[in-house]
Write a sequence for this structure.
């Protein structure tokens, strides 16, 4: 059985406590369904910093710098893997081998080989991996999926999805800017949306065509390599906000930089990068559904939108408003409107807290709506195909 213990909290460690991992540690420490017992990061100073913040809130945790040592150090029911994307398999597989349940941040990994290794390790462990494609838990997307399954649009024909993300500019000073670490934005970012297209279409992808360019955040001779050295910083909307609000973190970043880590204030324009700042991908599915996804991180607003159109109607959704509208074709009926604002509270349209509850249910053998590794690999394969399509200027067929 996969069941742990219904009466007791799940003993969990967080591996990788950078931006997302730090949030994860705080959320797990605050949840009565979990007992956070350890944090782990290859940068020990970062792990210690997070542990001190947790202690200020009343949580005492062990600190590790080696993931393998962390999963074997004591009694653990589960681990949350929040390391950079290209390390997911190498971190998650030892946890599975040690008998833990694994919450694995999206994407599954960034290569076909690593995805297959994770799938095999999960199967050998009896199916203990829960992939954190959290938009499946957002009330807006759950409602769209329920309506599609109920036949509200008849047979789906086209799906249009888009994301405009102001904060996406910061990818170009973080590890997400490098394919070797994050796979490029078609994987590290678009895996969310490619998974949604796959989920809504209800069939395997068969072909991908993508167009993507780095047009805005290109190298410039009139700005410096770091914001602190740049004369244009006072008037630059892309300048790093600085670390003055948290003196301890500022000192830590200085120590890390002195030890060889990249500076926190890399210029978005002059940082080394091999991904894009805007693109559009078209995906054909085996059942004839054709879908598109637009990704734009040179944006003036934050929002995700989706439109699913079929033989009997159309569903339109807006994540920023937490609203879904369903219009029946040729029926004369007034549109159905669903206001999900009360459900969509918190990050990712309300999904962040809901997915942590879902993982607790999964570890106790009760959660059926789980994205397993074999299913999560589909979004990575679409992302790999989109990358290849953009690089080579051709349609890429998927087996």
């Amino acid at each position: 059985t996969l069941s742990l213990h219904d009466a007791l909290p799940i003993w969990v460690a967080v591996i990788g406590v950078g931006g997302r991992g730090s949030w994860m540690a705080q959320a797990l420490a605050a949840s009565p369904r979990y007992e956070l017992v350890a944090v782990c990061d290859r940068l020990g100073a970062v792990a210690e910093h997070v542990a001190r913040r947790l202690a200020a809130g009343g949580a005492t945790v062990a600190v590790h710098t080696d993931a393998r040592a962390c999963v074997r150090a004591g009694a653990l029911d589960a681990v949350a893997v929040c390391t950079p994307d290209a390390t997911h398999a190498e971190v998650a597989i030892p946890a599975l081998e040690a008998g833990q349940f694994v919450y694995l941040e999206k994407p599954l990994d960034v290569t076909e080989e690593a995805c297959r290794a994770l799938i095999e390790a999960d199967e050998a462990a009896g199916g203990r991996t829960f992939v954190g494609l959290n938009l499946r838990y957002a009330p807006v997307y759950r409602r769209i999926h329920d309506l599609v399954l109920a036949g509200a649009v008849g047979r789906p024909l086209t799906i249009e999805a888009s994301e405009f993300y102001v904060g996406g500019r910061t990818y170009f000073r973080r590890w997400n800017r490098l394919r070797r670490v994050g796979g490029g934005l078609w994987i590290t970012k678009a895996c969310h949306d490619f998974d949604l297209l796959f989920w809504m279409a209800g069939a395997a992808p068969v072909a991908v065509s993508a167009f993507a360019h780095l047009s805005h955040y290109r190298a410039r001779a009139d700005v410096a390599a770091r914001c602190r050295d740049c004369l244009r910083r006072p008037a630059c909307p892309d300048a790093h906000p600085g670390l003055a609000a948290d003196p301890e973190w500022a000192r830590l970043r200085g120590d890390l930089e002195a030890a060889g880590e990249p500076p926190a204030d890399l210029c978005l324009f002059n940082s080394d990068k091999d991904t894009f700042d805007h693109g559009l991908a078209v995906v054909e599915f085996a059942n004839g559904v054709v879908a598109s996804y637009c990704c734009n991180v040179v944006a003036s607003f934050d929002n995700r939108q989706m439109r699913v159109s079929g033989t009997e109607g159309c569903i339109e959704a807006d994540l920023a408003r937490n609203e879904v509208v369903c219009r029946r074709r040729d029926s004369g009926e007034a549109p159905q409107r669903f206001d999900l604002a009360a459900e969509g509270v918190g990050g990712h349209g309300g999904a962040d807290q809901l997915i942590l509850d879902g993982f607790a249910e999964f570890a106790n053998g009760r959660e059926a709506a789980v994205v397993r590794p074999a299913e999560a690999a589909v979004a990575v394969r679409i992302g790999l195909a989109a990358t290849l399509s953009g690089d080579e200027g051709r349609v890429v067929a998927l087996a």
About this structure: The mean pLDDT is 94. The first helix runs from residue 19 to 30.
